[in-house]
Design goal:
Elements lengths: L11 E3 L2 E4 L8 H4 L8 E5 L6 E5 L6 H16 L3 E4 L5 H11 L4 E5 L12 H10 L1 E4 L11 H11 L3 E4 L7 H11 L3 E4 L10 H8 L3 E2 L3 H7 L13 H6 L4 H9 L6 E2 H8 L3 H13 L3 E4 L3 E4 L1
Parallel strand pairs: 4-5, 4-8, 5-6, 6-7, 8-9, 9-10
Antiparallel strand pairs: 1-2, 2-3, 3-7, 11-13, 12-13
Helix pairs in contact: 2-3, 3-4, 5-6, 10-12
Length: 303
Amino acid sequence: MVTRPEQNAVGSHVRGGIRLTPRDALYPRLLHSAHDPPPVLHVRGDLADLPRVAIVGSRACTRYGRQVALDLSAALARRGVSIVSGMARGIDAAAHEGALAVGGHTVAVLPGGLCPVYPARHRGLAERIASQGALLAELEAGTKVAPWHFPQRNRIIAGMSAVTVVVEAAARSGARITADLALSYNRDVLVVPGPITSRTSVGCHALISQGAFPCTGVDDIVAHLREDVPRLGEPPSPAARNLQGLSPEERSLLLALQPGEPSRLDEIGTFLDLSTAVLLVAATGLEIRGLAALLPGNRIEAR
C-alpha cells in the first residue's frame, strides 16, 4: 500500500461505517492519484486492498449483456479482483451479482449517501454487498439524489479502478461518461463488442473506434491489469490461494490486516461491522491456517 504523509491507520468512525479522507491509509490509492479525488468518502463494509476493475453498462441491458457482465465479474472475482460498479439496474447489478455468486469482493459506489440506498429496489443487494464487500459514497447520509450526482459518482468508479470495462452502452449513457473519465485518468478502457443492430452496442462500438480496447474474455482484462492476477489456466497467486476456503468473516478479517502491523479486534470489528465474538472465531480460524497470529490485548497480526 502506498504510504502518504501523516497517514491514519483507519478513518474516523461514523454510524454504519467509516469516514475516509485522502490522508487515511484505507483511502483507495488509485483514487488518491486522480486529479479530482473526493475530499471525503463514507464506507460501509470491507473496502479491501485488492486489484479493482470497474464493470459498467446500460440499465436497459439485453440478456446477452447481463450474462456477459455476470461471467466476466465472476471470473475476475475468482482471481482475487474486486469488482466496482454503481449498483444501478442492468449491467451494474449483474456485475455485483457475478462477484457475489462466487464469494468474491465487490464495491458499489452510490450516487447519494450510504442511506437511504439508491435505487431503493436494490436494498437487498446493498446488504449483500456490504457483508461481502463495501458500499461507498461521497455524500452525507440522507442526501437526496440529484441528476448531477451521477457523473460525480462515475468519476469515483473510474478513479478507483485500474481498468474499466464497458459491457453495453447507448450512444449517450453514463457508462460512456465513466469510460471517458477513466481515459482522462490514464486508465485502460475495454469494451465488449455487441450486435451492430443493437442500440445498446452503439456506444460500445463508438468507444472502440476511438481507441478503446475490445474485450473478448476475462484474459483480455487481466492482460491490462498491472498487478499479480493469474490468467486462465494458471495457478492462483499465493495471495489468492490464501483466500480460498475461508469463511466470509475470515476473509474480511484477513483483508483488513496489514503484515507487521498488529491491529485491535474491536477496532477492526467497528470497521467491518462485526462483533468481537464473531471476529475471535474468525481470528482463530486464520491462526489455525497459519495466516495470522493472535496477540495479547485482543490484537491480531497477519503472517
